[in-house]
Amino acid sequence: MTKNKQCTIGISGRKWGDAQKKQWFLQQTVKRSYQEQVLSEIDNLKHSFDVVQYGVLDTGVRRYPLYAIKSKNWQYNKKTVLVTGGVHGYETSGIHGALRFLQNEKSNPHSKYQASFNLLVVPCISPWGYETINRWNHKAIDPNRSFYDNSPAQESAALMAYVQSLNLNVLVHVDLHETTDTDNTEFRPALAARDAIEQKTWNIPDGFYLVGDAIQPQEKFQSAIINSVEKITHIAPPDDDGKLIGVPVEQKGVINYAGKALGLCMGLTCAPYVTTTEVYPDSTKVDDENCILAQVAAITGALDYLMANE
Fold first, then answer.
1. In what order do the strands lie in the sheet with 170-178?
2. Residue 179's pLDDT band (boundaries 50, 70, 90)?
3. pLDDT tens, 124-158?
4. What are phi and psi of 162, to 5 degrees?
5. Which of 59, 99, 131, 222 has a CA positioned 20 to 30 A from the CA of residue 67?
6. Architecture of the domain made up of 18-309
7. Rounded distance, CA 168 to CA 283, Å?
8. What are the residue ranges spanned by the domains of the chain?
9. Angle in degrees, CA 288, 90, 26, rounded to 5
10. Strand partners, 58
11. pLDDT tens figures, 40-98
């Protein structure tokens, strides 16, 4: 078992102020390139899709362009599929799963998905988090708890403003995530220090699972995604209490959250079909490619279900 890292910023029992958050920010280092690994892939899609810059993330040290990719044959009589990745920048397969889905679509000029839906894909919502391999943004804010009015997270605010400006009829939103061992070893200790609240470690599920919307869970839809992904990788079993990350399992591989109330990206729209994927990249049963393919299978499983049932 990997030992949890103690966060030494600030004073135990006292919430961080601006000085502690800046200290945390200054300790972060760039570990990989948004330009080389993400923007270059987006650039390769420009001939097949409309690439739209919807904002800029300004960390005070560097500015990151934020991009969305849209169907070229956009038709307002079609319903829209929204796919988001990289809300937590460190969750790698979500970003590259979204891009791989688009790459597959690029190579298929007669795609059934593009014939049936408008596609809107935002592959990397948090590019600073991607480069520094972080759950938080540069201000020590979790973007995936910040999808609400007057959001303090630039990443969340920019995406909300962009999606609202399009006035879309969104049928489905698939939000691509990972649950990693570093949730326990790094990010929960940092959360405990930042908020001065004890954060117990949780059992990281070994395998893929989904988070549905507690308000409209869409059980058959979630089940169809699980069936699609199970052809690629293993589904996380519940723990001894019948839970995943402390939440009761509703059906095989599925738990539910109150997306809008928690400020989650999955609550970004009023789409009737919503799901958040969770891949476990630290499992001994998978590799990076398998994790990416699982994310793609989640997207296609969702769309195949909707094509058959909507």
1. 49-58, 63-71, 117-122, 79-85, 170-178, 273-279, 209-213, 254-257
2. very high
3. 999 999 999 999 999 999 999 999 999 999 999 99
4. -65, -50
5. 222
6. 3-Layer(aba) Sandwich (3.40)
7. 38
8. 18-309
9. 140
10. 63
11. 999 999 999 999 999 999 999 999 999 999 999 899 899 999 999 999 999 999 999 99
